Amino acid sequence: MASLSAARRVRVRAPWSAAAWRDTVFVVSGVPLQLAGWLILGSLWTLWTPVRVTPILVLTCVSAILLLLALRPLTSWQRERCWAMLGLDIPRMPDFDGGRAWDVLRDLRSPELWRVLQYHLLVGPLLALGGLAVTVAWTAGLALATSGTYAWAVHPGDPLSDHPQRVAVLTAAGVLLLAAAPWAAAGVRRLDARAAAALLGPDRAKELQRRVDDLAEKRASVVDAADIERRRIERDLHDGAQQRLVSLALNLGLARETLGGVPDEAMRVIVEAHEEAKAALTELRDLIRGLHPAVLEDRGLDAALSGVAARVPLPVRLRVDIEPRASSTVEAVAYFVVSEALTNVVKHARANEVDIRVARLGDVLRVTVRDDGAGGADPSAGTGLTGLARRVQSVDGTFRITSPAGGPTTVTVELPCAL
Fold first, then answer.
1. What is the pLDDT of residues 63-100, one digit of tens each?
2. Is the dihedral of CA 93, 99, 104, 106 positive or negative?
3. Of 384, 380, 379, 373, whose CA–CA distance to 409 is shortest?
4. Residue 262, SS3?
């Protein structure tokens, strides 16, 4: 397999291959653009005659201004060259490419400006030397490889025709140069592509930070949209299905209490339907409360958590100090954290009491739920802790649980107060 790969690379880099000519045309076409910066700087210095007609400071300033004005078109041409010949798309830099041509003169402290200057005045000229070296390799190799044929066919009396050893050495040197030229062109092409992408495109660190910020903003929008949708579903269930079930339960209760003379079997059906309606109403209320409790939006986290603690069949100490209030989405996550943690305590912990502390510390909302149960809580055991951790992480929060065997178990959650 390795031999096949090596043979393929040799075939691709053969002097007559399309890749060799593509790389050669690419590096040679870049020489004028890569030397343009120094040509602009040196063009006005032709006016610096021994008579010293033009002050050197004026020439320096004018050359620098001309170079700065030429940076945008030179950079654009370099990007077009990379795209047309290599298919390499180098994105534009908003802080450098936007605005009018002379806007580049305003902020000389721009990192993008200095990166572009680094390419056109330092890296570009070095790559241009590589392009010239590739050109010399091709031309010298072709001349040396055909020197014997030229001497024999065109100038029979040439001294080379009488020295076959020299002809052989020169021909061999020419063949080696022709064989090395595609490899040199490929190396210069790779260096040029990497340098252009790194210096003529957006800074990778800043672009990554911009993408992170954009993703964080989109994630916050998705979380807010999900919270808004939960509120809408809660309102629809509260104002629609719940009211119908209440009406149905009342009618069945009224029928159960007032109807007389009905067969026992019919009365049993009415009683069962009444009980089922009440059970369905209780489940629907729990579902609505789990989606988004109305009291959370109306009266805040303290009142909502007090309602949750009151329904737990254990002594619960609750302390809430969150002034000023956090965002509604964060408060909803904190509410569900406490609600799910209490559910786990009731189902699995065998605890005697629970202590809940919710406090705002600067821009962080910290929620602590501690019970004196058996401990040994494992997030991977399917107790709802994994889903709880994911909900916390959805708003860039942190989730920690300490639960040694024998207890106590402490769940600590920290949430950003604003998204």
1. 777 777 777 788 888 888 888 888 888 887 776 666 66
2. negative
3. 373
4. coil
Within 13 Å and on the Cβ side, how many CA atoms surround 98? Answer: 6
State how far the Cα of 117 lies from the Cα of 37, in Å rounded to an integer. 9
Handedness of CA 143, 146, 147, 153 (dihedral sign): negative
pLDDT tens across 169-223, in order? 777 777 788 888 888 888 899 998 888 888 888 777 777 777 777 776 666 666 6
List C-alpha distances in Å: 238 to 28, 243, 245: 74, 7, 10
- Do 310 and 338 touch, CB atoms closer than 8 A? no
Whether the pLDDT of residue 128 is over 80: the answer is yes
Residue 4 has pLDDT above 60, yes or no: no
- Nearest CA-CA partner of 316 in 293, 286, 283, 349: 349
Buried b / exposed e over 342-370, threshold 16 CB at 10 Å, is: bbbbbebbebeebbbebebeeeebbbbbb
What does the block give as tokens for 316?
Answer: 């619960």
What is the distance between the alpha carbons of residues 397 and 326, in angstroms, rounded to a whole number? 13
The pTM assigned to this predicted structure is: 0.50
Distance between CA atoms of residues 30 and 119, nearest Å: 12
Token pair belonging to 354: 């629970």
The tens digit of pLDDT for each residue in 214-263 reads 776 666 666 666 666 666 666 666 566 667 777 777 777 777 777 766 67
Q: Which residues contact 249 (CB under 8 A, 6 or more apart)?
A: 274, 277, 278, 281
Spatial distance between the Cα atoms of 322 and 328, rounded to a whole number of angstroms: 12
Dist CA 103 CA 100 (whole Å) = 5
Summarize pLDDT for 387-412 with one digit per residue, the tens: 788 878 877 888 888 888 887 888 89
